[in-house]
């Protein structure tokens, strides 16, 4: 039995979505230093501001993975990765 192929137009729409997401993320990256400075000024510590920023980015990444379904990986695949690769 042959696998069903996606219509050509849906692939183009998916690529358009990825391109728009890349543009949006690129625009947000330019705002990040200013946001970090504002947070640091309010909390009184650059280290705490950095920790807040990293936590928010991590939470947003988890949310995107949960909603999009792209994050579904078999445990065996994760186990095959060398331990040192998880260090960052």
Features:
flat; 88 residues; mainly alpha
Task: Give a concise summary.
With 88 residues, the chain is mainly α.
Tally of alpha and pi helices: 3
Overall mean pLDDT:
87
**Helix/sheet category:** mainly alpha
Number of domains: 1
Task: Give the termini distance in whole angstroms.
Answer: 42 Å
Strand content: under 5%
The total count of strands amounts to 0
The profile of the biggest β sheet is: none
SSE ordering: HHH
**Spans of at least 5 consecutive residues with low confidence:** none
- Helix amount: over 70%
Please tell me how large the radius of gyration is. 19 Å
Q: Please tell me what the overall shape is.
A: flat
Descriptive overview:
The chain has 88 residues and is an all-alpha fold. The protein has one domain (8-87). The protein is 73% helix and 0% strand. The chain has helices spanning 8-43, 46-68, 75-79. The chain starts with 7 loop residues before the first helix and ends in a 9-residue tail after the last helix.
Write the layout of secondary structure elements.
Elements: H1 8-43, H2 46-68, H3 75-79
Helix pairs in contact: 1-2
